[in-house]
Amino acid sequence: MDAGVISLLVLLLLVAFLASGTVIFVAIICVCTVSLTVFLGFDVNRLGSTLSRIMIRASSSWELSAIPLFVWMGEIVFRTSLISRMFQGLTPLVSRLPGGLLHTNVVGCALFAAVSGSSAATTATVGKITLGELRSRGYDEGLAVGSLAGAGTLGLLIPPSIVMIIYGLLAEVSIVRLFAAGLIPGLLIAALYSAFILARCVSRPEKAPRGGESAPLSAALRNLWPIAVLIFAVLGSIYSGLATPSESAAIGVLVTLVLAALHGELSLRLLRDSLLGAVPTACMICTILTAAAFLSTTMGFMHIPQDVAAIIGGMGLSSGGLLLILALFYILLGLLLDGISITVMTLPITLPLVLAAGIDPIWFGVFLVIMVELGQMTPPVGFNLFILQGMSGVPVLRVAAASLPFFLLMCLSVVILALLPDIALWLPRWIFG
Amino acid sequence: MHKAIKALSHTANWLAVLALVAMFAHIVLEIVLRNFFDTSTFVLDEFVGYAVSALTFLALGEAFRSGALIQVTLVRDLLGARGKYFLDVFGHLAAFSMGILIAWYVGRSVLRNYERGTTSSSIAEVPQWIPELFVLLGVIIFALRVVESLIGLSQSGAHGETEV
Amino acid sequence: ETKLDMTNEYEPNSIHGQGDQFFADKVAELSGNDVIITLHLGGALGFKSKDNLDAVADGVVPIADTLGGVLAGSDPIFLVSSLPFMAANVEEARELYLAAKPAYAAFFEKNGQILLYASPWPPSGLWAQKPVDTPSALSGLKMRTYDANGTRTLIEAGASPIQLSWADVVPQLATGGIEGVLTSAEGGVNAKFWEHLSHFTEINYALPLNFVHMNRDAFDDLDEAGRTAILEAAAAADARNWEALGARVEGNYASLKENGVVIAEEISPELQAHLGAAASAVIAEWRKKTGEAGEAILSSYGAKIGRNF
Ligand code: NA
Ligand code: NA
Question: Do you know which PANTHER family this protein is assigned to (chain A) (predicted)?
Answer without folding.
Answer: C4-DICARBOXYLATE TRAP TRANSPORTER LARGE PERMEASE PROTEIN DCTM, SIALIC ACID TRAP TRANSPORTER PERMEASE PROTEIN SIAT-RELATED
